[in-house]
Design goal:
Number of domains: 1
CATH superfamily: Glucose-6-phosphate isomerase like protein, domain 1
Number of helices: 6
Helix content: 25-40%
Distance between the termini: 33 Å
Shape: globular
Strand content: 5-15%
Radius of gyration: 16 Å
Order of helices and strands: HEEHEHEEHEEHH
């Protein structure tokens, strides 16, 4: 994997555990798995993660930020999701997703979106089901144990680790801004991975 094609140094990806999957894998995720470790953990293909972050960045940059909804039930994802949304101007729902948010116009929390970014299809099932019902495209960070049948754009990544979530959301925010022309070079992006990382 040549360094020029990577969004960050390969060792930074590895130190943050973006590639460390679960001990279970689904058939859907087989094509994103690089190998299985001796301890039974599936290792995700970092090149694919990197390339799909680039594709997602291009796609999200073309959508009005107010039409992008980012959801996360996992606690370690709250800060990265809020920071990502604030940085690109999207809307975020960290924590409980109120049933009907995407499907019931009577609700106070009702929101219309053109795309939904899901942190973990397994944890964010309510948001997933509603997006599917109303036909909103789904971009999702998917770990080795995720099903991807209703995901329109899969970004293979460890979607449970504190540092991993900070890294992928930080990279995606930077990609969106670069594609929008809001930053010219990556070094123009003043936020750090630490700014996106959940506190313990």
């Amino acid at each position: 994997m040549s360094q020029e094609e990577l969004l960050i140094q390969e060792d930074e990806y590895q130190k943050s555990g973006v590639h460390i999957g679960t001990q279970a894998k689904t058939k859907d995720m087989e094509k994103y798995i690089f190998k299985i470790r001796n301890d039974g953990l599936y290792i995700l293909n970092l090149k694919q993660t990197n390339d799909l972050l680039i594709i997602a960045g291009r796609m999200l940059a073309r959508i009005n930020p107010k039409d992008i909804l980012v959801v996360a039930q996992r606690q370690y994802a709250f800060r990265p999701v809020l920071k990502f949304s604030e940085t690109i101007g999207a809307r975020a729902i960290p924590g409980r997703f109120i049933p009907g948010t995407l499907t019931n116009p009577e609700l106070k929390s009702y929101t219309e979106s053109k795309v939904i970014l899901v942190t973990d299809p397994l944890a964010d099932t309510q948001a997933m089901q509603e997006a599917i019902k109303v036909g909103i495209p789904i971009v999702a960070f998917c770990d080795a144990n995720n099903k991807t049948s209703f995901v329109d754009l899969v970004i293979p990544a460890n979607n449970k680790g504190r540092r991993s979530l900070a890294v992928v959301y930080w990279l995606l925010a930077r990609e969106v801004l670069k594609n929008r022309g809001q930053i010219k070079e990556y070094q123009d992006f003043k936020l750090t991975i630490e700014d996106f990382e959940a506190q313990i």
